[in-house]
Please model this.
Amino acid sequence: MDKSRSIPEWAEKKIKNSFIEVLFEWRATLYRRSGQFLDDGNIEDSNKAELIISGIDSEIKRRKHSKSVDTNRTSGIPEEGVMSAMGYHVGITKGEKPEIRRRILTDIYNGPIIMVGSLEHMEEWGEDSSVKRLNKIKRNLKRFIFSNKNKEHHSTAIKEWEEDLDWVEKNF
Model:
């Protein structure tokens, strides 16, 4: 294998030894960094970030297929949902650029997704790339919009949820 196209050893160690939640957060951060590098014309560093993202994706898939279940999960609806845990955020405070949000929405749809809450809650998300998963994403976006519609300080978030819902409906 071409040495310049392999994941750095430090990154491989971090990928193998990190909790799944950390991997999803790190991947979302690398999405942002890769985009910033491209905006700055730094293609080499963007490619390095994408290479690490690829390694993270491989590890997430490997863990999914190992069928391990975290028995320390709580029952019912979790405090932080799947979309947030995977890095999807809108609005002024923690909001991501549209291209980052949509990349994360694509990851959520294609899977695998992070386990939050109970197994019953996770069953609502369906299989990777399924109609059930797509409908869950759309329901969540519609619920976010509806439940915040009368909150003036959420106008940016509402606009971004509406844009993302439109994008999801056109692209999946």
In short: Residues 43-65 form the longest helix (23 residues).
